[in-house]
Amino acid sequence: MNRVLRPAADTPPRSRTERRQALEPFSLRSSRYYLIAAAVAAALSALIAFAYLRGLTARIAQSGRLVELVVAARDLGSGEVLDSSSLQLVPFPDRYLLPGTYTEVSQVSGRRLSHPVRQGEPVLESALLQGGDEEMRDSLTPGFRAFPLPQEAVNFPISRLPPQGRVDIVFVEGESARLGLENVKVLGTTAAEGASFHRESASGSPSGSASCLILEVTPEEACLLAAALEGGRVELLLCPRAD
Length: 243
Prior knowledge:
Layout: H1 16-63, E1 66-72, E2 87-93, H2 131-139, E3 145-150, E4 166-173, E5 176-190, E6 197-198, E7 212-217, H3 219-231, E8 233-238
Antiparallel strand pairs: 1-2, 3-7, 4-5, 4-8, 5-6, 5-7
């Protein structure tokens, strides 16, 4: 007996609202799974971070006593005067402190930077202008530069130069000599390398043993003087006070 296949009754297509309602249970279940997974991941991350910080604290404690280190609170420019707003204190193991670091803001407050310091970097002694450096810069005439002339480069005893005196400089090369610079102002002297700059005392003699003469010259005169020292030697002639 042959089986007769009857066509299925036509079913009307579902509307968009009906399809959305049919998928809502699956969407809700998926959202719950995502929320649970996110909560578990956040809890694991918090536990890992806590364990890391706890271990880091233990390692720091083993590294030595924590002290407060003076660092730049923001990017600081060359020549900037330091104060409490530009500095901050951060904990740091004392056994890892670099030479020349500071542990109190008052130690560097009011000092001037010799070069830029980035935010978070420690403020080192080498980054600060020394008192003599600031005095030398303040004594410079605008447009002029300070040029160091070692005592061994000349025969004239620089300790005998009067305060704020002036000199003529003779360039000597071989057997020839010529007047190179005239009426050059003497800013002061320095002692051994690394010592502070100082002006001559009122008696005309600097305090300490002078080993370098600081002259005030223009950039062009500095080039001429450097070339003369490289190719020969120089001599000083003391100018009268009236010149």
